[in-house]
Amino acid sequence: MASLIPCPHCGIRPKEEFSIRGDASLVRPDPESSDETWNDYVHIRANPRGRYREHWQHVAGCRRWLVVERDTFTHEVFSVSDGAVRPWETSR
Amino acid sequence: MVHQYADRHTLEGLVPADVSAGADHLAVAARQAIVVVLAAPGQEAAVAHLLASDEDLSARFSAPGEWLVISGLQTPELLHQALAALLGDMAHCIDQSHGRVLLRLTGLNARAILAKGAGLDLHPSAFSVGQSANVLCGHISVNLARVGDDAFEIVVMRSFADTLLHDLRDMGRAFDLTTAFLA
Ligand SMILES: [Zn+2]
Asked: What does the record list as GO biological process (chain A) (predicted)?
């Protein structure tokens, strides 16, 4: 587990200050989508070994939702950005 | 049954009033004026500028567009009125004077004491005088500000003050940390 997270608002902090929500790359399906699609969106998660993008909340600091891009194998943190700023969405 | 809703400090009875301060000292403010200011969307920079322009106000950063504004001179009511007049509809101001407790830690070992519980780089090059941030101290989230080279102020939610005081005394025991209400 990556142990130091550079919060864009608060600086470098230990992971204990954060809580993790999970996969940040999911896109909410259309309301009319099939039950199968909704089931996948709500319940089914990949558990990748390697680069992963997750929602983390800095609960003990600025309380902002952040997007942490990290490697689940090497623990390297590649980027941390505020959840309101979503640079990866434009490049998707 | 008659209830008495007297104004009572949450640390009353836990902190002596008449202990003389040692080399490293934790002072508990007996009264304080603290207002949370939350900038309206798009007004963050303008609000920050106005808060910085008033010398009586000490704005402690807690999140983007959000500050704890502290005044050592004004009463809670007057501070709230002054901020409402200063910021108008650019921000929401909520009086938290009775919801928080203000502690001031001073002494040459203040940094070493805090470093036992807070995962924040306290070196002056990383956390200089005037800087502030929300940080975990032990397992309690507090707002920490550096108010001098060897002086820090901690703002904690009232209901956590008792436990935080206990933790800080443990952290300061090796340095004979003293504790008293601020005269
Ligand atoms: Zn943060």
From this structure: tetrahydrofolate metabolic process
How close A27 gets to chain B, by Cα (Å)? 25
B1 occurs within a structural domain: no
- List, for residues A6-48, the tens digit of each pLDDT value: 999 999 999 999 999 999 988 899 999 999 999 999 999 988 9
| CB-closest option in A12, A16, A63 to B136 | A16
* Last residue within a domain, chosen from B54, B76, B95: B95
The reply to whether A81 touches chain B by the CB within 8 Å rule is: no
A82·B64 Cβ contact <8 A: yes
ipTM for the complex?
A: 0.87
Contacts of B77 (CB under 8 A, 6+ apart): B95
The class that CATH gives domain A4-82 is: alpha beta
pLDDT tens digits along B52-102: 998 889 999 999 999 999 998 889 999 999 999 999 999 999 999 999 999
Q: Report residue B175 CA to chain centroid gap.
A: 22
> Domain boundaries in chain A?
4-82
